[in-house]
UniProtKB/TrEMBL annotation:
This is NADH-quinone oxidoreductase subunit M. InterPro entries: NADH4_N, NADH_Q_OxRdtase_chainM/4, NADH_UbQ_OxRdtase, ND/Mrp_TM. Belongs to the complex I subunit 4 family. The chain crosses the membrane at residues 6-25, 32-52, 95-114, 126-143, 149-167, 179-199, 252-273, 285-304, 316-337, 344-363, 375-393, 413-435, 447-471, 492-512. It is found in: Cell membrane; Membrane. It comes from Insulibacter thermoxylanivorax.
Length: 530
């Protein structure tokens, strides 16, 4: 039934329905704006569930949509050979992108619900920017054209800039500017890499049409067959020899991609911008940023690093793994010495993204599956933890571990959820964090046992900083000022319960995720000869 519908286009642009409705509501009608803003996030979630209901878990890429977007004829290179630039509106999903799309719609709706209690001003603008951000994120995970991917990627930057700059805390403007500068540099590096790839023309298989294209499949084919220097009259021609990418150019493009998505992940030492975002952005924006946007960095490394440059990934796997271990240890040690709960969780995100790098560097199915598990698991856990932190700050006006204490008496529900989220963060068996770390480390151990052991040490440190934070906040002496604080309201409790449910589900029944991503992971590893 879904084969005849543009389900991906419907899903990606469904948040814009809410944008249009919000635009028609006057700014002073705050209740209506909040209802529409939250309800508008339910439509993408419903469509994502519908998409998954028709997803063939044994198949590869599905729900493909393609249309010529830009077709620009150029002067022919030689007689009888059409020569043009073609950019396509091309969408497709496999198990990895389908899982991340569902995660995006779920976290977005939970963040929108949480915003009902946290956002106090300019609701119309907030939800418009929020829904535009969701559109950009969904487009990133479905785009099959490099230029289209870049457009959706850029669409995630501007809305988040305003969400931080307008609704953030004391240093919101400085933080928003730093976010834009770092991510702008990453975007520039990505665009340069994409331009080089697009400017490397090839012949469409079975024809003599000479084309500059940003279509992912064509670029991947061209890179894989760059050694075919066939006669210019052959029907099997794929390249004009003069335009074949030199090995040095390929390496240059590969490192551009590593840097671009390493900044987004973020990998050490490009992480400082992320710390301020987690500290200064409003809770709903941090839920989205930590839960979804950081995952775009890893997704880009898989799609454009691993799939387009498998040889280079093998050559530099050790380097990537080293940076993964640095992320894990550096993030864990710094999280352990922080006195602010927001920064504890921010450095924890740095550490856990290191596990993703290790899973990718393993270059086998077990490791890559662990990396994708970590993307989904950390997306759920970090969204939950930053929701709790935002709720604590709203009630106490502080996130200092030195000032908070004994809150389990006043807020037993919220502190109980915080404990469960912390246990998931440190990788307790039965929760989602355990299986992701296990797969990543097992996948890496055969090829890099020393780095695996060092990475495991970082996870041990996670237990220290998580339990330290839980003990400081939930137990001990409580300041008299916080004796009357209220526990979670309904708009906070529902997202907390939903996120916990998925954390537990993946922990006790990981097949619900492995069956979704398994074929995609296998296809990628087989594509690199793993």
């Amino acid at each position: 039934m879904l084969d005849n519908l543009p389900i991906l286009s419907m899903l990606i642009f469904s948040p814009l329905v809410g944008v249009l409705i919000l635009a028609l509501i006057r700014s002073e009608h705050g209740r209506a704006l909040r209802i529409v803003g939250v309800a508008a996030t339910a439509l993408p979630l419903a469509l994502a569930i519908w998409m998954l209901s028709g997803f063939d878990f044994s198949g590869g890429r599905q729900f493909a949509e393609q249309a010529v977007w830009i077709h620009l004829p150029l002067p022919p290179l030689y007689e009888g050979v059409p020569h043009y630039v073609q950019l396509n509106y091309s969408l497709v999903v496999d198990g990895i992108s389908a899982a991340l799309i569902f995660l995006t719609t779920l976290v977005a709706m939970m963040a929108a619900l949480a915003s009902l209690g946290h956002i106090k001003k300019r609701w119309k603008a907030f939800y418009i920017w929020f829904l535009l951000l969701e559109t950009g994120m969904l487009g990133v995970f479905a785009a099959q054209d490099l230029f289209l991917f870049f457009i959706f990627f850029e669409l995630t930057l501007v809305p988040l800039y305003f969400l931080i700059g307008i609704w953030g805390y004391k240093e919101r403007e400085r933080t928003a500017n730093k976010f834009l500068i770092y991510n702008g540099i990453g975007s520039a590096l990505m665009l340069l890499a994409f331009i080089i790839l697009i400017a490397n023309p090839g012949f469409i298989a079975g024809s003599k049409e000479h084309v500059y294209t940003s279509e992912m499949d064509v670029i991947q084919y061209n890179l894989e067959h760059a050694d075919l220097h066939l006669d210019s009259q052959s029907q099997e021609l794929h390249y004009k020899p003069a335009k074949v990418l030199l090995p040095e150019t390929k390496t240059f493009v590969f490192f551009l991609i590593l840097l671009a998505f390493g900044i987004k992940l973020p990998a050490f030492p490009f992480h400082t911008w992320m710390l301020r975002v987690h500290a200064e952005a409003p809770p709903s924006a941090v839920m989205i940023h930590s839960g979804i946007l950081l995952k775009i960095g890893a997704y880009g490394l898989i799609r454009f690093g691993l799939e387009l440059f498998p040889g280079h990934m093998e050559q530099y796997a050790l380097l990537i793994a080293v940076f993964g271990v640095i992320n894990i240890l550096y993030g864990a040690v710094l999280a352990l010495v922080q006195s602010d709960l927001k920064l504890v969780l921010a450095y924890s995100s740095v550490s856990h993204m290191g596990v993703v790098l290790l899973g990718i560097a393993a270059l086998n199915e077990t490791g890559l599956e662990g990396a994708v598990f970590q993307l989904v698991s950390h997306g759920l856990i970090s969204a939950l933890m930053f929701l709790i932190v935002g709720s604590l700050y709203e009630r106490t006006e502080t996130t200092s571990l030195e000032k908070l204490g004994g809150l389990a008496k006043a807020m037993p529900f919220m502190c109980g959820i915080f404990l469960l989220g912390g246990l998931a963060l440190l990788g307790l068996p039965g929760l989602s964090g355990f299986i992701s770390e296990l797969l990543a480390f097992v996948g890496l151990f055969d090829s890099m046992p020393v780095l695996t052991i060092l990475g495991v040490l970082g996870i041990i440190l996670a237990a220290a900083y998580v339990l330290r934070a839980v003990m400081r906040i939930s137990y001990g002496l409580m300041d008299d000022r916080y004796a009357e604080v209220k526990d979670a309201r309904l708009s906070e409790a529902i997202p907390m319960i939903v996120l916990v449910a998925f954390i537990v589900l993946i922990g006790i029944y990981p097949a619900v995720l492995s069956e979704t991503i398994g074929t995609a992971v296998t296809d990628i590893i087989h594509g690199i000869g793993g």
